[in-house]
Amino acid sequence: MDFEWIKIPYALLSLFIVLNYGLLMTALVTKIGARAGRRYGIPIYQNYIDILKNMALRTSLTHGVMFYLGPVFRLSGGVGLLLFMPLIFGSEMFSNFSFAGDLMLVLYFIFFGMLGMALGAGESGSPHAAIGVSRGLSQVTTSELPLALAVFAVALQYQTLSITDIVAAQQHGWTSWTLFTNPLAVIAAMFSFLGSMMRPPFDIVLAPQEIPIGPPTEYHSSYLAAMQTNRMIFAVAKVVVYMNLFFGGASNWFELFIKVFLIYLFSAFVGVCFPRFRVEQSVRWFLVWAVPPGILAILLV
Amino acid sequence: MKKELEKRTVTGPDGQVFEVDPLKDYFCEATPTVQTGEYLQIVEDLFNWARSNSIWVLGFGTGCGAIEMRPLMTPRFDAYRYGVQWRATPRQSNLFIVSGYLSVKTLKRVVRAYEQMQSPKYVMGLGSCTINGGMYWDSYNTIKQLDDYLPVDLYVTGCMPRPEALLSGIEALKKIIREGRGEGANIYAERFEWYKANQKKVIQDWDMPDYNW
Amino acid sequence: MRDIYERLLKTFSLGELIEQRPDLAFITVPQAQLQDVLIRLRDREGFTHLVLLTAVDWIEDNQFQLTYLLSNREAAVDLGLRVMIPRDEPVMSSIHIIWPTAATYQRELKEMFGIDFLDSPGIDEPFILEGWSDIPPYRRDFDTKKYAEETYSNRPWRETLDPQEHMKKQLYPDGT
């Protein structure tokens, strides 16, 4: 396959669209969460202001090279996840750099940012960051487990490692979605999804109400802005993975927006209904409730 | 001076012996410098607008007034809709609300936390205790004027002020920031010697670096 | 209450029993016998809970009064033991062996009154005041107002009203 240079501006365009959509959508979901608590909630453009303010801070300080690289790794994790995945099915413009084995790469990228973050936060020397990293890594590792199982089940089911092919196989009406052809894998994956979206009941790692705010304890000004940007991109990109694998993909931007919003809303919905787990509780929860459906899904395929 | 801040010799895991001077090795000795704004006034105005609409408060209650900050997160007052958020770490916060009486022991922690915040940063004194001592005017252990020790942008009067007063104080602070007058960090840097002298006068066992980055 | 007192009197030389309420009484105990009385009360009479340990400065008598307030939860009665110690040489034996919580009270008393409790853990560490160099602030010869005025700067235009006079003026402006 020869490389087409025109893909680069297309990929940047999709990045731009996804960033703005992520900023607005997360604000909207926060607002919905606030309304569930009978609050008015933040303005819809609050995320833009926060990022602008963080970039506008006049001072910043560093704790070493890795401290710089932490947010960079994190951001590249989110951006990389997005770039190697077909966003819109059947569109030459927005299938980005997807290739035959991109499913493996995507799985790797989901974890990549977290590892970079762990190194950067460790360099900051704050004990709260170290606690946050160890909590976060243990929780994410266990929540990755059902996702990996579900992805393997799906790959076995369709006999391919290409996301585009998986999406293509789901294009015969909504009954052909993985959601209905392999429900156990979807259940395992959606449980894992809850764990990685940093919403209650699994947000003890990053919750600002906790005394140690987690890995970003020492991060400030433009570092924090980079991480916030990543959070927006990563949230959408991750949901797009789910949408492609389990919910039939999207054939235009509008469908993508709706589907991403609904899948994201699922985690927000669970979040406003349930209180927060401690780390050992959430680890146990993942192992007891999310891993068995994943194993079953593989066995049944 | 605390024991862990004194000079000492340490033997490393590989048998190498070296001297550690924590104040020099672990902390930066540089004093704060005056940070100028952006070159273009219109950019600075935009940034000031962003700063005013995204005020992150350090979740550090120094006195009884901390109880007035909590209702602001609840449905009744909901400060989030004004862009106010509480952060758990001074690195990410912009506004320090000194809520209520400030004992000397707390002042030490307040100074440390304030110096770790990133410029531009703002200080709000809440309640009459921070203004002139309030009902603790003859106490042996609480300071009477907050602006001797930190550059205060705004005072909210009352004993205690209601959460509404705090909200209106935040609105007033937004105006101050938008007008470009929220330069507390630069005032602190300019008059650093004076502030330090005042702080050291009341904090008798000064066991930390002069400036905590 | 009275029967506990009678039983204690057989072994110890105690002061008068002052019954303030049916469920609250105070006994004055000699300094040397305090530990034995406490152990006896805890083990035999069911006073298992140390409610508080505090001090009073009787500057006129040149004495400190230590009050050990004990509670018997089952019978719902409180008993206070008073120990008078000389003000010139405020040294007392520690009771942290009987109640470990007492160590915190003793640290506080050491800092606020300057009463030394022998062998109490962490007795010399700063409790609330860090680096205090004046006389202990809860002693009555310590002038709080003077200290505050000397140490902390006053805001110049502050006026302090005498509450009694002020309220009189507020409530009865015509001076009746």
Overview of this structure, please?
Chain B: One of its GO terms (molecular function) is quinone binding. Chain B: Keywords: 4Fe-4S, Iron, Iron-sulfur, Metal-binding, NAD, Quinone, Ubiquinone. The complex is a heterotrimer of chains A (301), B (213) and C (176). By secondary structure, chain A is an all-alpha fold. Chain A has one domain (2-300). Chain A is built from eleven helices and no strands. Chain A has helices at residues 7-36, 46-56, 65-83, 102-124, 127-158, 163-169, 178-181, 183-196, 221-246, 253-273, 279-300. In chain A, helix 1 packs across helix 9 and helix 2 (46-56) runs antiparallel to helix 9 (221-246). Chain A is globular, with a radius of gyration of 19 Å. In chain B, the strands form three sheets. Chain B has a three-stranded parallel β-sheet with strand order 5-6-7. In chain B, helix 2 runs antiparallel to helix 6 (163-178). The model of chain B has no long low-confidence stretch (mean pLDDT 87). Chain B has a single domain, classed as 3-Layer(aba) Sandwich (Rossmann fold), CATH 3.40.50. The longest helix of chain B has 16 residues, at 163-178. Chain B is of the alpha/beta class and 213 residues long. Chain C has 176 residues and is α/β, with parallel strands linked by helices. Chain C is 28% helix and 26% strand. Chain C is built from five helices and seven strands. Chain C has helices spanning 2-11, 34-43, 102-113, 144-151, 163-171, and strands at residues 17-21, 24-28, 49-58, 63-72, 77-86, 91-93, 116-118. Chains in contact: A-B, B-C. Chains A and B meet through helix 2 of A and helix 2 and strand 4 of B.
